[in-house]
Amino acid sequence: MFSASKIFKVGTLPKNTYVNFLKSLYSLADSMNLYNIIVTFGLIPSAYAKLKCSMNNALLRQVVEALPDPAAVFDRQLQLIAVNRAFAEENRKLLGFELTGGDSLQKICDACPHLAELLLNKWRRALEGERFNTVLAFGDPPRHYQTSFSPLCAGNGQADMVMMVARNVQQEVEARENELFFRSVLENLPVGLHELTAEGWHRNMNGALRRMLGADHPAAKNEPYNIFADPINARNGLNSLLVEVKELKAPVKREMYLHYVEEVHDNVTRIRPMYYETTGFPVLDAQGNITCLFLILNEITEKKLAQLSLEKSERLLQTIVEHLPVGYIQFDNFGFIRRVNQTQRRFFTWQEPEGPASTALHHDPFSKLFELDRLFAQVLQNGKMVRLEKKLDYLPGQPGTGMEGEVFLDLTMFPVEDPVDKDRIVVALVNDITEKKRQELENNKTHEFLTQTGELGKIGGWEVDMQTRTMRWSAQTYKIHELPPYAAMTMEKALSFFTVESRAKIEQAFKACMERGKAFDLQVTIHTARNNILQARTIGKPEYRNGRIIRIYGVIQDITEQYKIKHQLTRNTELMRLFFDTIDMGYAVMDKEGKVNFINRKAQEIVDHGTVIGKNIFEVFPMLVGSTFHARVQQCMELQAPVSFSNYLPVPDKWYEFLLAPMQDGNISIFTRNITDSKKMQRELRKANEQLSSLNKYLVNQNKQLEDFAHITSHNLRAPIANMKALMQIMSETDGEEEKELYYNMFQEVIRNIDETLNDLIEVVQIRKDLNVEKERLAFADRLQKVKDILLVDIETSGIRITTDFTEAPHIEYPRIYLDSILQNLLTNAIKYRSPERRPALHFQTRVEDGGIVLTAEDNGHGIDMERYGGKLFGFRKTFHKNKDAKGIGLFITKSQIEAMGGSITAESSLGKGTKFIITFRPE
Amino acid sequence: MKPLKSIFIVDDDPIHQQITEIMLHRLSISEAVSRFSDAQDALDHIRANMHDARAMPDIILLDLNMPVMDGWEFLEAFDAVRSTLPSKIKVYVLTSSIDEKDRERVSRFTFVEGYLTKPLSKEIILQLAQ
């Protein structure tokens, strides 16, 4: 940098030279951005004059030399006038030759042919007064220079020199290119980039992010957008990530589910979650303050989904393996146990190994015990599955296992190629078959036992292998069939020993056993090899393995002896039954309590009740308890002597003669015989009675009436007569006249009483006697009107309302006097026994029923307690009310009049509601 | 002979009541004679005085054929309460009925002391007092 004082010293140029120089200097300063300095310098008026004088080429050279940037001055002939060291240096470096005074610009042009024209062109135009400032690249590799061409004017104002200043801008050019490059790189990066202010305001983003956010996003539209203010970011974790970045002032990376896209496939919209690997990092200034925040979003949806589904299938597989009902052990290529499922863990009370390094099975004593090491090597070498049953005998408390004693294992080992690292691994499946094995051994033992004990109980064993259809017999079975032991046996041959009937039974049972697993227990008949006939019992059962029937096995027992005894017994019982069934007498045996042990057909017929054998007769027929029969049974047992009696059984309606005989064993024999025939007389009498009664109910009525009269005589005539007797007695024993007068009056009263009763009776007797009283056609309405006329006063005083409905049967053929009497009695009753609580009412109605006429008279009076008085309602001199008028004769006469004509009268009543009399006249 | 304290005559026939009462008085076998025309009234009286032995009769002479409540109903109702009575009451049926069926039916009421037919004779009255 030159100073103003230095310029003072050289300031002796002529005025025009000075002005030109100044102009040149201005242009120089302009070209070199030193304008201010020059101007400052130029603003000192006193210096102008001195500079004007001292300006010459030498000075020019000095000035050029003083310039910091490479500078060179060429004249109109392209001759180099002045060059500074910087220019010469650069020239040597870039173009490879020394630039000396008098060298032509052409030389540079030759060195840079691609610039030659441009340089010369600029040169020429600069000489014409133009100024240029342009970036040119020199050399190889090209170096960029901001090259300015400035005319230097002589005194005539004509430019006679051109100063070329070339400032090295290589770095700036490179920086600019780099920035552009990076910008385009960032713009086209496949990851999203977001530049934010420290406060979260959107500043810049790249294309990938714009695509992620969509064109509608405010940031994409360059609207103000603060990432912290976006509510979605509070939820998806973006905010917390950025907060963490700000706090740590360090990058933070996280996998996030930021948004989703909707994909439409054939009317189905699927939500596709979008996962991102999100990195946030801060940009710090020199003081360590955050100047901006960057977010990098890398979409990893595919990866994430794959990872998730992998995890899922992994989990599924793990769950399946874990819950397999067989033990599962997975070894890696080196024999280390990598996975053990719970069955296996339970099986071996396996402990989770502490630390990652479990023992390789070559060194594990436990695996050696199982020979797992050997098997492992074999499987890995041959690449084939191995399956075997192993019997292990544990000592109690042996480490690594919860087993004790004999254990049988079904062990399957097979190689698997790990789908990821392609390693060959080995899986072992362990199944505890101890129980099954024990069962098998037990079966074998049972077989053996059967063979041994078969001799005693004449029980032989047999089995049919369902796969091979071979038949095996035990020695005893051969013996039963009277065959030499261990002769070859087939199903067909075995079946040939049965009788046709038994064979059919056996074949059927075998079929059912094979198809449905039905066990059988049959009694069969066998023709032995020596043609003896045996009774045998054969029992068969199926055996299954893996759900398939593998054999049918069982036993055969010679039960001929038992059969014979049983047969004999049955025959004896049968004979006895036959005997007792043939006799025309009921026979039964029962114990003390009444339980029937035997009963023959006849007796069974008599009791006529399902099965009684084995049951208690007094429970089957509870009505027998306390009966004559019961009493006699007790008598028989008490006396221990035979008891005979005859008894009528109402259910079969028969007479029976019984003989009860005690037996030695404490039971009682009962013999019974139907003696109904001998009771013929009674039966016929009853029959006659029945016929009589069914033939003529009228006669029965007569009977009943006769009884009524007997009763009436007994009660109603005897009472006053008894009073008279008593009166006579007490009268005879008194002397007092007053007393006698009293008794006399009482006599009068009694006699009046007798007279009244006799009159009533005579009336009734008259009715009953007068069966052929003349009938005539009467209208109910007419007769009722007649009665109403007679009872006019009573009707008026009682206020009774009488209604009628005789439409269905308006007429009847009946003795007029009776019908009048009946209607009058009904009406009188309704008035007499009216209720004081309501207006009395009586409704007469007639209808036709079963060809006869029915008259009903329904009142709303006191009503009668039918339960209490129903039986006496129509009795002679029966009253139920504390009514002074009640004489108890009206209804009796009514009844007599109705019954005399073959009809009947009944009543329905409820207390407090009223009474309904129903009169059924005999059909004509 | 110590006279009885009380006799109830239960009968709907006022003449018979009167005659019986005269006969009982003449023989002086009871200090008091009460008459009931309705068995229900007699029963109500007994039920109402269950705790008073003095209100109880020594003897009841019961007719059978009566309105409202007859002798049979009285016997059934009396049977139900007699065990809780403060003193023993002798019940005699006194009826004009000579019907065997009635006599048989009365015999089923085991507590009834006797079946008497009207009219009462002096001898029978004297037997009652013993």
Can you describe what's shown?
The complex is a heterodimer of chains A (924) and B (130). With 924 residues, chain A is an alpha+beta fold. Chain A has 32 helices and 32 strands. In chain A, strands 2-1-5-4-3 form a 5-stranded antiparallel sheet, sandwiched between helices. A 5-stranded antiparallel sheet of chain A has the order 7-6-10-9-8, sandwiched between helices. In chain A, strands 12-11-15-14-13 form a 5-stranded antiparallel sheet, with helices on both faces. In chain A, helix 2 crosses helix 4 (45-54), helix 25 (680-695) crosses helix 26 and helix 30 (816-832) packs antiparallel against helix 32 (890-900). Chain A starts with a helix and ends with a strand. Chain B has 5 helices and 5 strands; from the N terminus they run βαβαβαβαβα. Chain B has one domain (4-128): Response regulator (Rossmann fold). Chain B has helices at 14-26, 39-48, 71-81, 100-107, 122-128, and strands spanning 4-10, 30-36, 59-62, 90-95, 112-117. In chain B, strands 2-1-3-4-5 form a 5-stranded parallel sheet, sandwiched between helices. The chains are: A alpha+beta (924), B alpha/beta (130). At the A-B interface, helix 26 and helix 27 of A face helix 1 of B.
In CATH, the topology of the largest domain in chain A is named Beta-Lactamase
Q: Which class best fits the helix and strand makeup of chain A?
A: alpha+beta
Overall pLDDT of chain A, averaged?
A: 78
> Count of DSSP helices of chain A?
32
Assign the CATH architecture of chain B: 3-Layer(aba) Sandwich
The proportion of strand residues of chain B reads 15-25%
Physical arrangement of strands within the biggest beta sheet of chain A = 2-1-5-4-3
Number of domains of chain B: 1
The coarse silhouette of chain A is: elongated
Spans of chain B of at least 5 consecutive residues whose pLDDT stays below 50 are: none
The rounded Rg of chain A comes to 71 Å
CATH topology name of chain B: Rossmann fold
Count structural domains of chain A. 7
The helix count of chain B comes to: 5
Q: Helix amount of chain A, in percent? A: 40-55%
Strand content of chain A: 25-35%
CATH class placement of chain B: Alpha Beta
Count of individual beta strands of chain A: 32
